[in-house]
Each structure stands twice: as C-alpha cells, then as structure tokens.
Amino acid sequence: MKILVTSASGANGDGYGQVLAFSIDGLPLGTFSDDPRITDPRGMRVSTDSQLLYINSGSDRILALDKSGTIQLDSGHIPGLNAGGGNLGPNGQYYVGLRTDKTVTAFPANLDSRAIPVLQHGVVPFPRGFAYADDGSLFLASGIGPQGNGENTILEFSPDGKLKSARHITDNAVSPLDLAIGPNGNILVSSEFPYGQDSSVTTVREYDRLNGELVRIFSPEKRVSFRHPRGLRFGPGGHLYCVAQDEVVVFDFYTGQFLDVVIHHPRLNGQAIEFFGD
Q: Which of 59, 100, 141, 199 has a CA between 20 and 30 Å from the CA of residue 80?
C-alpha cells in the first residue's frame, strides 16, 4: 500500500505537478507515473473495486491508472474541463468538481462517454470538495477561489440533485478547502480561515450530519506548520489524513488526537491524498 499525493504546480504554487508516491511510513518513492498526460493533477480517487486510480489531470482529461502507474483508461482531452476535486458516488460513477463551470459532473466508471452534470451550471461561486452520503445526499463545499471570490459554506442536495440547504453549517470561522464524510456520517472539511492570509487559522472541522452544528475541531501540535490544508482521506486504522503545503498530518478520528506528521516533503503543495496498491 502506498500513500499518493497530487502535487500542484502552476498558478497554485511551486509544486511538482505530478502524483507523488510515499511508503505507508512516509518515505518518498518518487513519482507514481511518468506518463506525460498527467500534468498539474488535482483530485483523485480509488475505484469501487480498488483496482484503478482516477486522476483529474490539468491537461483537461480524466485518467485511470492501475497499481503499477500505467494508464488504463483515458477520457481524452475535454476542452475547458478544469477539473478540481474527485470522488465516487451513486452507481460507481466517478464524480468531478468543475472549477470553471462551477458544478459537479459524473463520468461513467469506464470513462467511455461524456460526463453528465448532476447539478446546475454555476451552482456555487467556487466548488471545493464534495461527497455523497450513504442515503445519496450530496454535500458540496463552497469556498473562496484563487481570485478571492466565493463564499464559505456547505450546501446539501437531495439524491435527485435538488437543493435542500444552501447553508447547512453554522460556523463563522471556516473557509472549506476539501470535504469528506466520516464513518459516523458527519461532515468534515479542511479549512483555512480567513482564506489566503498569512494569519489564517488552519484546522479540520467536523459538523453534525443532521443539523450542521460544529462538533469538533482537529488541529496538529504547534510545532507543525500545517499551512494550506487540502485533501482529506480516511486511511489505515480509520485514521484521518490531511495533506498540506509541506506535509501530511494524521489524526485519530475517534479520539480527535493529533498523531503525527507522516510525510514531510518541501514544496509538496498537496491537493489530494489517496491510498492505493497491495
């Protein structure tokens, strides 16, 4: 099993523009794949059968790689795609947040046909992370974009895509950057508030699934910089991992305790994190 991190380059920072691989203990293993179709990647997610890794490439295409890092599926170039986060959802489809179109769209698992939007165009000013609950409800983090536009909230949609709540959470100190659903059904977001400032407070925040009330705040020890937190993922032992500018931190989700910095890698500029391989 490897830890994989998408490292942003380009406008979002001096990262590597590749998917970087690490051992489960955090030792660097180099790039996961050298295929030139992978450029400045963002979201990624392991398929439902755990055999493929979907990657949102900055070259405006969706790719699926096997455990050796070889591309098995390619959506082909989709002009203007500008994909952000990625996640699994109903019917085993791969869902992608679109930053230009400001919505979420669904690709078939085999990437062999065009994507179908599941929400209306421009549903939020700038989509961040999203996830489907077990009952088919979709939670979408609406955050601040690179140009400073946007809002700080979480929207809830019914399984048929209808808006249930335009402001599901009650928290005036959050700027969401990714979203996940915990094993208890609650909503978690990585947050940098106020967004994009040197004085920003960076945390992972948990909200009650039903009423949106703030339940807990996860934060590492003061010795950890934890700047620009992004992707969230549950890993071995049910621990909660969060990737940031130069590191990956891990929490015990059940106790809320900070455990360790599992990866320290200068210029990581991590966007998404995943666990993949045998």
A: 141
Contact 124, 151 (CB under 8 A): yes
Task: Give the residue from 278, 262, 267 showing the smallest Cα distance to 27.
Answer: 262
Those residues with Cβ within 8 angstroms of residue 90's Cβ, 6 or more apart along the chain or in another chain? 132, 136, 159
Order across the sheet with 232-234: list the strands. 232-234, 240-243, 247-251, 258-264
pLDDT (tens digit per residue) in 142-165: 999 888 889 999 999 999 999 999
In residues, how long is the chain? 278
Give CA–CA dist 223/2, Å, rounded: 26
User: In b/e form, how buried is each residue of 13-50, taking b as 16+ CB within 10 angstroms?
Assistant: bebbbbbbbbeeebeeeebbbebeebebbbbbbbbeee
pLDDT tens string 71-110: 999 999 999 999 999 999 998 999 999 999 999 999 999 9
Query: Residue 249 half-sphere exposure, CB side, CA atoms within 13 Å?
Result: 26
